[in-house]
């Protein structure tokens, strides 16, 4: 059994067929961030709604330098038929590739399969995994839902925003953060970086402990 993938791991390379043609993942991902999301199978209701929402957000992810990549455990012919339903439902063309993985090889490589259910001999469907990778193919965030539960793609877009602003400003983001809101500036950030990124200074929260560790800074969304 391969080691589970962890945040900061380099995502493994693979070659696969998609409804848009063959891809080699390392070449597809080169120089871009990538959001890679798995689906149990084609022509299933939750998956159709998710892929449609992903199609609606293609331009938003692209503005952030993020390529989209889906995977579903059916073959290419099935994918080609399915995208017509997805596009019709979401009123948006599916421009991102959907990896065909009928033998679950890539799902196994990326640990997108659930634990075996007792007394269930059928090949398991993939769970709803998401991996967000930066432009070095390093995994920066991961989330996994069970097969029956649809994901929130607006939240995934928010995670990308948070990661990218954190990288740019050497900051962290507080609970329920949205682009343009105040960010947290850890005490470990050097003063020269604070002065460069937060010219208006910091707001230190007065806490009962009297420890000045919760500091907010204001930035402007770019």
UniProtKB/TrEMBL annotation:
PROSITE patterns: THIOREDOXIN_2
Designated name of the protein: Peroxiredoxin-6
Entry-linked PANTHER family: THIOREDOXIN PEROXIDASE (PTHR10681), THIOREDOXIN-DEPENDENT PEROXIDE REDUCTASE, MITOCHONDRIAL (PTHR10681:SF128)
UniProt similarity note: Belongs to the peroxiredoxin family. Prx6 subfamily.
InterPro entries for the chain: AhpC/TSA, Peroxiredoxin, Peroxiredoxin_AhpC-typ, Peroxiredoxin_C, PRX_1cys, Thioredoxin-like_sf, Thioredoxin_domain
Described function: Thiol-specific peroxidase that catalyzes the reduction of hydrogen peroxide and organic hydroperoxides to water and alcohols, respectively.
UniProt domain Thioredoxin: residue ranges: 5-165
GN (gene name): PRDX6
UniProt KW Cell inner membrane keyword: no
Any Gene Ontology biological process: response to oxidative stress
SUPFAM superfamilies in UniProt: Thioredoxin-like (SSF52833)
Pfam assignment, any one: 1-cysPrx_C
One GO CC annotation: cytosol
Alphabetized GO MF terms: thioredoxin peroxidase activity
Keywords, in A-Z order: Antioxidant, Oxidoreductase, Peroxidase, Redox-active center
Active site: 47 (cysteine sulfenic acid (-soh) intermediate)
